[in-house]
Amino acid sequence: MDKIQVAILISGKGTNMAALIYAAKQDDCSYEVTLVASNNPKAEGLALAEAEGIQTFAHSHKGMDRADHDAVMHDAIMKSGADYVVLAGYMRILSEEFICKWPGKILNIHPSLLPKYKGLDTFQRALDAGDSHAGCSVHIVTPELDDGPVLAQTEVAIMDGDTAEILARRVQYAEHQIYPKTLAAYVTREQDPDWILEQIRSIALALPETHEKESFGAPGFRVGTQKTGKYFAYFSRDHFERKGIALFVKTSGRDEQAALLDVDPDLYYSPKFYGASGWIAVRLDTGDTDWEHISDWLAKSWRVVAPKRLVKLQDIADEF
Ligand code: GAR
């Protein structure tokens, strides 16, 4: 599998950036650093990145609108070919426009146990509150500051005599461990069968009157009652005599099935036993799953098997 390209944004020292760069030197690391960019041309981390042969870019934000500066950074990141943006001590609040261009694709490390102590002065605030632990969190960046879903956290014990500086140094040891590991796992989450199943489950069970029921060892999704429900999807993991991960959904019939196999044989195949009755397998292990497409398929398959009464209700709901 090709490595995922990441751009790291820094404003200062760049010790987290260094941890990310050195972790990426391991052959089995899932990401590689394609760019280190900064809003501060004097950021110390830039020299280290250059010495390690990584492309750098710096553009001061001084005198610029936030959105204009973000657009300059976005351009540089796009040119580098990065798939993800990793904030490592990037001390600028990003505009909503920028964040919306990278949905689910910007990660940040924050020096507190979120949701506690968003913003600045996190260590002093933890000390002042008499907390037993400080810590760090890796989270997905959303437009609300330090508010996106937390992917990982490490608690760091507060010791007698700690000052904000001493505590900050210890928390950084924890940051340097957690950030590369969390990033590496996050960028390959779409290859993790459990993560994929969770996505399928949440989309399938959001459809009306659905439930999950195992079928020959595979998770299956049905519409209707527990007793008489009908399957509209199966999640296949090395099942039904084929290695890999796929979603089985019901087509309108053999013609549609044949057309799909013809148009995109890399994405679709006819599943053993099930193919004969109009089911099609949509691969979920290609590494670039289009989740909207999967969502459409689940809804379509649901319609094929759902009772007419439910389909009618859904049609009415869809009109609004
Ligand atoms: C890190 O401790 C990081 O948690 C913090 O800045 C430091 C940067 O250090 N980030 C924030 O406070 C973001 N809100 P580094 O430049 O040595 O990696």
What features would you describe in this structure?
- By secondary structure, the protein is α/β, with parallel strands linked by helices.
- Helices cover 37% and strands 22% of the residues.
- It is built from 10 helices and 13 strands.
- The strands form 2 sheets. Strands 3-2-1-4-5-6-7 form a 7-stranded mixed sheet, with helices on both faces.
- Strand 4, helix 4 and strand 5 form a beta-alpha-beta unit.
- Helix 1 runs parallel beside helix 6 and helix 5 crosses helix 6.
- The radius of gyration is 24 Å and the shape is elongated.
- The chain starts with a strand and ends with a helix.
- The model has no long low-confidence stretch (mean pLDDT 95).
- Glycinamide ribonucleotide binds next to helix 1, strand 5 and helix 6.
Total helical elements: 10
Strand content: 15-25%
Could you report the average pLDDT, rounded to the nearest whole number?
Answer: 95
SSE string: EHEHEHEHEHEEHHEEEEHEEHH
Radius of gyration: 24 Å
pLDDT under 50 segments (min length 5)?
A: none
Largest sheet: 7 strands, mixed
**Cα distance, first to last residue?**
43 Å
Range of helix content = 25-40%
In order across it, which strands form the biggest sheet?
3-2-1-4-5-6-7
Counted beta strands: 13
